[in-house]
Amino acid sequence: MVKETYPILYCDTRAILVDFLRSREEAEADIEIPDIQGEDYLAWDARGFRVRLLCRDSSGEPGWLEVEVLGDQPDADREFLENLITQFGKEQGVDIRPAPGETLLQYAERVDERVSFRKWTERAWWRRLLGLPNR
User: Fold this and answer.
1) Mind giving me the DSSP string for 4-22?
2) What distance in Å separates the CA atoms of residue 135 and residue 121, rounded to the nearest whole number?
């Protein structure tokens, strides 16, 4: 059995939200149990293996999340993931493509950094200075 490698890149099944889960603890805090039970997410580990997010129990106690690695070939969904990440970036105002030799994880992190920076720079300078969100 292959063990998952964090971070895990995940998206909702409508491919509207794309984000990272950097640890099991973060995943258990960020994802809701009904969404896991409803199979509302698609996910891949840091090596590009497709993973399934499963609910061991619905108590919400630490350790409720199980991550099952699917298949035996990393990057089997590479083209789909590249398109997903690219489209997500475009929807957030960031239009970049994967660089030659760049892993999917590196590409996703680069898009994520650009999206975060863009959102940060859209705030008024005094709100950024004070660490306040936009209204």
Assistant:
1) P-SSEEEEETTS--EEEE-
2) 14
Q: What is the 3-state secondary structure (H, E, C) of 71-82?
A: CCCCCCCHHHHH
For residue range 24-53, list pLDDT tens digits in order.
Answer: 999 999 888 998 888 888 899 988 889 999
H or E element at residue 51: strand 50-55
- Residues 35 and 53: their CA atoms lie apart, in Å, by 10
> Other CB atoms closer than 10 Å to residue 50's CB: what's the count?
19
| Percent over 70 (pLDDT), the chain | 94
Mean pLDDT computed over 82-88: 89
Residue from 48, 38, 83 nearest 69 by CA: 48
